[in-house]
């Protein structure tokens, strides 16, 4: 059974995360984790905090596994890892309706702006715009109380948070201003540094979220209902609500227009990722069989022309099925990742390490002057992997290998050269645990 992971959230940060009337976690961030559960079957237990500062204290001390919505920073990277951004929203300042429209933080030089305790923006604003007076508060409620009393001139917060709060509380005496010269508020998922596999999984989840998914989520949590009526007060309230909705829509249009310039880059990046996934192993990140064959064919053409030696090493993990059966597939997957990481450091930058099957790897060793160089690479491989590995759950295991090394004859067909070591490697696994096979005109077997 997959263990349940704990995720920290604050109780009243609408629309990102909050507790509804039935006591259930809701919001944009929670919907992201629902998608993760649907795709992977992993379950999450949400730990609710009254204040952001308390949440960060628990996360820093390792009492919770993840944070649903957090902005990555250099200081936080000392104790946590982060996924890429799954949501980006402009910052806005809430003021009285009498305030003229502004779009720059410079308009608030010499004025007092409230920010909620624990926001990363507090540090950034004080460093970049020291002319702005910062008032740190515990909640949006406290900030609006100070705004009503005239103690502060505005409340700086995420646009969705500000609009959602005014909407939920019918506070139409205020308006929001989208601040264009501040960087967007970035939403990442924070993961404890010892949960590398969970980080990789959450990164894949974030990367898989489509524009349609985001549209569905934002429609769910930014919906404003206007109640119709014939009473003049209700009618006036609806008119004010319409003006507020128009303001939010205009701000959203400005926000998305600003992102259009980055859309092409994002699409190119997505296409690059898809091409990478098509040619690489999803678990280890190594080239797959298709990419390996392509590089092998290119190398053969090049080596024939330059009269160089080309070698291919076939690496097979012995007893891998027993690891899966005894400790589970999660441990087996982690073992494959650890082995692939070590294989990367064996060869040179010009060599190719690929995963072609469940526990089967190949290394394409190129640009050799003689066969002795490839033998040295094989010896280095054996020294690197013939050691104990510490796997998850602190399991100590010895990796045993079957290795075949073939020097390709440029005068022989490619498939004839590659069939020999695979057949020999399978038969040798019954007799020995580590072997180097050197097929020339006649096959020689050296036992190590």
Helix-strand makeup class: alpha+beta
Q: Could you say how many structural domains there are in total?
A: 3
> What amount of the residues lies in strands?
15-25%
Return the average pLDDT rounded to an integer. Answer: 79
Q: What is the first-to-last residue Cα distance?
A: 41 Å
What is the CATH class designation of the largest domain? Alpha Beta
Helix amount: 40-55%
Give a short synopsis of this structure.
By secondary structure, the protein is α+β, with helices and mostly antiparallel strands.
Characterization of the model:
By secondary structure, the chain is an alpha+beta fold. The protein folds into three domains: 1-88 and 185-223, Periplasmic binding protein-like II (D-Maltodextrin-Binding Protein, domain 2); 91-178, Periplasmic binding protein-like II (D-Maltodextrin-Binding Protein, domain 2, 3-Layer(aba) Sandwich); 289-447, Reverse transcriptase/Diguanylate cyclase domain (Alpha-Beta Plaits, 2-Layer Sandwich), CATH 3.30.70.270. Helices cover 44% and strands 25% of the residues. It is built from 13 helices and 22 strands. Strands 1, 5, 6, 7, 8 and 14 form a six-stranded mixed sheet that branches. The protein has a five-stranded mixed sheet with strand order 11-10-12-9-13, with helices on both faces. The protein has a four-stranded antiparallel sheet with strand order 16-17-15-20, sandwiched between helices. Strand 3 and strand 4 (25-26) form a beta hairpin. Helix 10 (320-327) runs antiparallel to helix 11 and helix 11 runs antiparallel to helix 12 (371-385). The radius of gyration is 29 Å and the shape is elongated. The two termini are 41 Å apart. The model is unreliable at 223-236, 392-396, 410-417 and 420-448 (pLDDT under 50).
């Amino acid at each position: 059974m997959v263990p349940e992971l704990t995720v920290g959230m604050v109780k009243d940060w609408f629309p990102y995360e909050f507790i509804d009337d039935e006591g259930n976690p809701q919001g944009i961030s929670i919907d992201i984790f629902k998608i993760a559960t649907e795709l992977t079957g992993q379950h999450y237990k949400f730990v609710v905090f009254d204040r952001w500062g308390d949440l960060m204290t628990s996360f820093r001390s390792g009492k919770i596994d993840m944070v649903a919505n957090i902005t990555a920073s250099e200081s936080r990277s000392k104790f946590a890892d982060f996924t890429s951004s799954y949501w980006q929203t402009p910052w806005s300042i809430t003021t009285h309706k009498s305030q003229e429209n502004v779009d720059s933080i410079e308009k608030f030089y010499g004025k007092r702006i409230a920010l909620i305790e624990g926001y990363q923006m507090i540090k950034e604003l004080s460093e970049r715009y020291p002319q702005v007076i910062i008032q740190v508060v515990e909640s949006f409620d406290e900030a609006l109380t100070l705004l009503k009393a005239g103690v502060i001139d505005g409340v700086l917060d995420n646009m969705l948070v500000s609009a959602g709060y005014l909407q939920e509380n019918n506070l139409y005496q205020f308006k929001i201003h989208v601040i264009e010269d501040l960087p967007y508020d970035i939403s990442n998922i924070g993961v404890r540094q010892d949960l590398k596999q969970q980080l990789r999984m959450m990164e894949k989840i974030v990367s898989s979220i489509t524009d349609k998914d985001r549209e569905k989520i934002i429609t769910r949590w930014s919906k404003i209902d206007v109640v119709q009526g014939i009473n003049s007060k209700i009618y006036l309230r609806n008119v004010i609500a319409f003006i507020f909705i128009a303001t939010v829509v205009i701000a959203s249009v400005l926000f998305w227009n600003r992102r259009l310039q980055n859309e092409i880059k994002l699409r190119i990046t997505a296409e690059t990722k898809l091409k990478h996934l098509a040619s690489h192993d999803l678990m280890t990140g190594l080239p797959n069989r298709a990419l390996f064959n392509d590089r092998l064919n290119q190398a053969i053409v090049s080596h024939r022309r330059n009269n160089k030696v080309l070698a291919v090493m076939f690496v097979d993990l012995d007893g891998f099925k027993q690891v899966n059966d005894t400790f589970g597939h999660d441990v087996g997957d982690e073992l494959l990742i650890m082995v692939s990481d070590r294989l990367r450091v064996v060869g040179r930058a010009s060599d190719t390490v690929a995963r072609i099957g469940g526990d089967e790897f190949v290394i394409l060793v190129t640009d050799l002057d003689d066969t002795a160089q490839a033998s040295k690479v094989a010896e280095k491989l054996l020294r690197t992997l013939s050691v104990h590995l510490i796997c998850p759950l602190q399991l100590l295991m010895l990796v045993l290998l079957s290795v075949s090394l073939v020097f390709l004859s440029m005068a022989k067909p490619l498939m004839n050269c590659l069939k020999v070591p695979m057949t020999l490697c399978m038969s040798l696994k019954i007799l020995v645990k580590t072997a180097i096979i050197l097929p020339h005109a006649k096959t020689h077997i050296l036992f190590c």
